[in-house]
Every structure is written in C-alpha cells, then in structure tokens.
Specification:
This protein is α/β, with parallel strands linked by helices and 526 residues long. Helices cover 41% and strands 19% of the residues. The chain has 20 helices and 15 strands. About 1% of the residues have low confidence.
C-alpha cells in the first residue's frame, strides 16, 4: 500500500468496530506485516458474504493472513466454525484474491483471536476438525498478552515469535558467509559472524509453553541492561557467541584442498525468517532490538551454528550451558530435563522423576493442583505459590525420592512415589486443617514439611523415635499453631526451612517426652 505508517494506523483505528479488534490488528502493525485492510466486507450480486476484521500479508503477498477477533464469552464454537468455514471456501478465497489483486499462488492463513479465554484450541469442544487444516490457527488471551509483552520489549522483532507460532512455511533464501568448520564432540559446527540486523531477521526462539519449547520468557531488565551497554560502547564486555540450530541445508565450501580441522571456507546458510533457532544468547541478541537499523547493520555478533539436531541434543545443550549460571530459572531447567527419558544411571534420571511427580500433583485432584509454577509462558507466579525448583529439590535433598529414598520404592515407580507423598500430605491437611494447608501451599512450607519428614525417617534409622509417621504428623498438627506458623515463616531464604525445622523439633522436645533423643539435624551423622 502507498499509505504511510501513520495513515495505516489511523485506518485501523477508524475501521475497528471495537477496542479488541483494534488491539489485535495493532499486533500485526507493530510487527511490520503489510496492511491490506481491516473490517473489510465482501459481497457478490447475491448479497453480503461476510466481513474480515484484519487482512495482512508477508513475503510480498506470498502469504495473506485473515484475522477474526472476539472477546465474547458465549457462542465461541459457533463463531469459530463460521469464520473458518466461510473463509476456507474456495470461491470466497478467490474473491479475496481478486479484490486485492493477489496471485493464484498466494497462500491464505486464517487466525481466530480469542481475547476472552485462556484455553488452547484442543481444550475447546467440537473444534478439532477445524485444525486438521494447517492454515487454521487459534490464539487465545495468553497468546495475545505474550505477544503484546514481546512487542513492548523488542518491537518489530517480535514478528519471529508470531511467525513461529503460526508455523508459516519459510520463503527459503540463503547467504554465503566466511566461516570456520570444526567439531564439538561428534557434532559438526560452523563459526562465523553475522550482522545483528540479519540475525534479528532470521532467528526465532522456541518458547516454553506447556511442555514444548525450552527458552524462558525474555527479561526486560536484561534487555535494557544490554541495550545500555551497546549504546555506551561497552558491548565488548559480552563477546561470547550466540548458539543457533539451523533449518535447511548448510553447505560448506572449503578454501584449501587439504583437509584440516578446523578449516576455513564459505558457508551457505538459510537467511529467511525463522530459519535459525536460538539455542543460547537471546538476551544478547534482543538487546539490540530497539536500536536504529543503521547500528544493527554495522554491528556483528559471533555465531556458532549446528545443523538441525535432534530435540534432545538441542535442549541438553541449553541445559548444560545454563545449569551453572544463575540467569536461568531453575524451574525451567528442571522442567526441560523431564521432557526426555534417561537411563537409570543418567545424572538427570532422579530429577526427571521428581518433575513428573510435580506434574502429577499439579494436574491431579490434590491440594497442589494448579499451584506449582513450571515457568511456562502462560503462567504467572501470583497464583502458583510453589515453584517447581523448590518442589523438586525438597524431594531429592530430603530423600523423599531418588536413589536412597526412605520408602524403599523402586526409582522408576512414579505412581508409588506420588501415592506415598500424597498420603503424607493428606495426613497433614486432613479435616481441612487451615494451618497445615497454609504450610503445604508455600515454598518455605514445602521445604519445611519434607525436611521434617526427612528428620523423622533419619531418627527412625537411629532408633531415637518409636512413633509411626502418622503419629509424627499428628504431633506436628498439634504443636504448629497459626501463631507458631507465622514465626516459622519469618525465616527467609533457602536456609529458612532448616532453621524452621530446628525450631519445630525443639518445640516437640519441650512438649512431648518421646522426642527427648530426637536429632534436630543430621550434622555429623550419615
């Protein structure tokens, strides 16, 4: 279109029937899709066919995106059916192409934006058949909020997030760059540099949503910090490479006949949108996102590129890079580790089992249903008080699960672990004990509860307590009043649970003779 961006934005505002329609169209405007029209009504001699809320294109009209928006609670299925059926009809598609002078080869993509619900399309009734057509997409309120947040942080470069979500096939192109070929372990890798502009155009991030993807949500604080460093010419302080996994062929033509490793040559790599997946370095790259295009064109970053590797290796690389660094949330790393099966001897085996137990608690009819934070993009901490990292470490460090668990349960017996742990929690909260419920539904409380269970079993091994676990939990219920709970919760930090457990044991000792030989900690004891 010949209109300026200001003129296009005014058209969107003036044409929008409501605020929701305007907000969704603005997502496409802000990510620099090409505007074809909004609130466009189509008709024939027989009458009006229907209206499309937004029409956008990419790749010089190779793909045209039809957008429908709703924020109504009721009638969702019917509205979705009507939109997708109407604009999947070949006669109506031809009408759109004729109206906008599109070529016969233009692909039509349909998106239904639902700003009322937070469920994915496979949780909605009676619409499964719609999405057998890969050109039909459903995005919900969580998707909208996520994209809106990305745009605020990285501007038009949030486009790759939207394109990756829609899985629009790439218009493949390639560039040749000087590169070095070598091996990391058994994997062939290529080292080269690219302008930030080209990287922002070609890279995308596999976001963690449900149990797919692996990257955490962007941190605006980190983005701003890196942006400041670039502007103040301190960018030399983060020279380490970004790591990408490439789709499409990597063709390497060496410069010398001799075979040497490493060896120099020209690498032909894909250069179209969403052709390189960021495995590590998203904040380093997106720190440039809102800077002028001239700077993006003149600044290069070092890249280490793998040919597309299997998902396990890709995620394993991300975990290994970030496991020793504080900048990645531990809940995300634990969650990623659980996505793959490991042999019994693998270092992540017991962590995976602990995460699977947490997932079971989060979805089952337990006190922790929907209360565990897994670091997905659809989650907020406000309504998920227990982090996955806390839950997993509390199970493993206190020998509730793992190699030397107190229950003598086979390490692979997920259901047995779940049932045993759930039984213990049910004992604590039975009769809807309000104090114990408050304990179990918090990070410090989970650490405290499992630490006390650990101390109980350890003391049983030393024969310093004769009571059953049921009687032990009953004693806890008796001595932990609301006032005492508040005192215990005043201890803060990872060591707070140990200090709180010590105070609980001391109170048990004072109130019940059976605990006079009970060890309050296990220092110096195996």
């Amino acid at each position: 279109m010949s209109e300026t961006r200001d003129e296009v934005l005014n058209l969107i505002k003036n044409n929008a029937k409501n605020e929701d329609e305007y907000k969704v169209n603005k997502l496409f405007f802000d990510t620099y899709f090409e505007y074809l029209g909004s609130s466009v009504e189509f008709s024939t001699k027989q009458g009006i066919i229907g209206e499309i809320d937004g029409i956008w294109s990419i790749d010089d009209n190779k793909y045209v995106i039809l957008v429908e928006t709703t924020a109504k609670k009721d009638g969702l299925t019917e509205k979705m059916e009507r939109f997708f059926n109407l604009w999947s009809n070949q006669k109506n598609i031809e009408l759109i192409k004729k109206n906008f002078k599109l070529s016969r080869g233009t692909k039509i993509v349909r998106i239904f934006f639902d700003l009322k619900h937070t469920k994915s399309h496979d949780e909605l009734p009676s619409v499964e058949h719609i999405f057998r057509d890969k050109n039909n997409h459903y995005l919900n309120l969580i998707d909208y909020r996520y994209l809106e947040r990305q745009i605020k942080m990285i501007g038009k470069h949030a486009k790759s997030d939207l394109l990756h979500t829609l899985k629009i096939p790439k218009n493949w192109s390639s560039d040749g760059v000087p590169a070095i070929r070598t091996f990391l372990g058994n994997e062939e890798v290529f080292l080269f540099s690219l302008t930030v502009k080209k990287l922002l155009e070609t890279c995308y991030v596999s976001r963690r949503k449900d149990i797919t993807g692996f990257q955490r949500i962007l941190s605006n604080k980190k983005i701003i910090s890196i942006k400041k460093a670039i502007k103040s010419d301190e960018s030399i302080t983060f020279p380490n490479s970004i790591i990408v996994s490439t789709k499409g062929d990597l063709i390497f033509k060496k410069l010398l006949e001799e075979r040497n490793i490493p060896e120099a040559g020209i690498l032909t790599l894909p250069s179209s949108y969403c052709s390189m997946k960021l495995v590590d370095g998203q904040h380093r790259l997106y720190g440039f996102a809102k800077l002028d295009d001239e700077l993006l064109q003149n600044f290069n970053l070092i890249v280490v590129a793998y040919k597309e590797i299997e998902k396990f290796k890709e995620v394993y690389t991300f975990i290994k890079i970030n496991s020793t660094q504080s900048r990645v949330d531990a809940s995300l790393l634990y969650n990623l580790k659980a996505d793959f099966k490991y042999p019994l001897e693998h270092e992540y085996y017991d962590e995976r089992i602990a995460v699977l137990i947490a997932r079971e608690f989060n979805k089952s009819d337990s006190i922790l249903k929907n209360k565990i934070y897994f670091h997905g993009i659809e989650e907020t901490r406000s309504n998920k008080p227990v982090t996955l990292a806390t839950f997993v470490t509390a199970l493993l460090k206190n020998q509730i699960t793992g190699k030397n668990n107190f229950f003598n349960i086979e390490r692979s017996e997920l259901n047995e672990f779940y049932n045993k742990i759930n039984d213990l929690i049910d004992l604590a909260i039975r009769d809807e004990n309000p104090v114990m419920i408050k304990i179990i539904k918090t990070n410090l409380g989970i650490r405290l509860f499992f630490r006390l269970i650990f101390l109980f079993f350890k003391n049983k091994q030393y024969n310093t307590i004769k009571k059953s676990e049921i009687a032990f939990i009953d004693d806890l219920r008796e001595i932990i009043s609301e006032k005492f709970r508040k005192e215990l919760f005043s201890y803060y930090g990872s060591g707070g649970a140990n200090k709180a457990a010590f105070e609980v044991v001391e109170k048990l000792k004072k109130s019940k003779k059976e605990y006079e030989d009970f060890f309050p900690n296990m220092r110096g004891r195996k």
